[in-house]
Amino acid sequence: MDLNEVKELLQNVKSGSMDIEKALEKLQDLPFKDLGYAKIDNHREIRVGYPEVIYCAGKTVEQIKGIIEFMITKKNNILGTRASKEAYEAVKSICPKAEYNKEARTITIKNKEVKTTSTYISIVTAGTSDIPVAEEAAVTAEIFGNKVERIYDVGVAGIHRLFDKLEIIRQSKIIIVVAGMEGALASVLGGLVDKPVVAVPTSVGYGANFGGLSALLCMLNSCASGISVVNIDNGFGAGYLASMINKL
Fold first, then answer.
1. What is the pTM (predicted TM-score) of this model?
2. Domain count of the fold of the chain
3. CB count, 10 Å around CB of 159?
4. How far apart (Å, rounded) are the C-alpha atoms in residues 157 and 51?
């Protein structure tokens, strides 16, 4: 339930088209629903503008299914991240319109139309191996109503590939840069554009990459201005932040 729905409910009570008991029934799960193993934050969209997202890793299939089964009743769009195919099949058994992005490992359920932004977010990867993290960012941004341009495999090892797409990137409102290895692509783009850059270090790379730490430190130490950095492999965090900036 978002602010507009709360206002509509109160107006209906005021006008007499809804009785108090029915209104209380609709409000009884605010601010959260306690399922025992999870407390679903139904108040989040009112506070921050976005409904709660399910981080599926570490949860059992039955827990994920139970959480989504309740969330469906609220008629919001639903996003589950780091979800297995097994979890998706369980969710699909109770909600046939659920969709699964194998690369992003996301479950999405679209219960209502969200107006799509006229401005767009560019999501740029250094390599093909970075695409799963980029897709998590893309799916996140899209379900929150953002137009997304995907520009993949344009890393510094062949920088002419980046220049070929530079005009598309420059016209976006915000840029997400996803890179592993030494993570240099964020610095390069930061020096070429006049838009904010959200850098996502990935765990892609050989041993001295230290599971993404080398890319993380390179991005944090970038001499280019206007770059913010999220955690290693955190495509969701990048997509969420970019959505907030794109809608300002």
1. 0.84
2. 2
3. 13
4. 39
Helices within the chain (DSSP H only)? 3-15, 20-27, 44-48, 61-72, 85-94, 131-143, 160-163, 166-170, 185-190, 213-220, 235-246
Q: Give yes or no: residues 136 and 228 share one domain.
A: yes
**Residue type, position 31, single letter:** P
Is pLDDT at 160 greater than 80 in this prediction? yes
List the domain range (segments joined by +) for residue 145. Answer: 120-246
**Which of 83, 109, 135 corresponds to the end of one domain?**
109
Per-residue pLDDT tens for 11-63? Answer: 877 887 877 777 666 665 566 665 777 777 766 776 777 778 899 999 999 99
- How big is the chain, counted in residues? 248
pLDDT for the residue 40: 73
User: Do residues 80 and 107 lie in contact, with contact meaning Cβ atoms separated by under 8 Å?
Assistant: yes
Is the domain of 203 the same as that of 140?
A: yes
Q: At what angle do helices 61-72 and 85-94 cross, to 10 degrees?
A: 40
Contact partners, residue 22, CB within 8 Å, separation at least 6: none
Query: 146 lies in a domain?
Result: yes
Kindly state the DSSP code that residue 32 receives in the 8-state scheme.
E
What share of the chain has pLDDT > 70, as a percent? 91
| Same-domain pairing of 133 and 227 | yes
158 and 187 together in one domain: yes
Q: What letter does residue 130 receive in the DSSP assignment?
A: G
Sheet bearing 120-125, strands edge to edge: 147-151, 120-125, 174-179, 197-201, 227-229
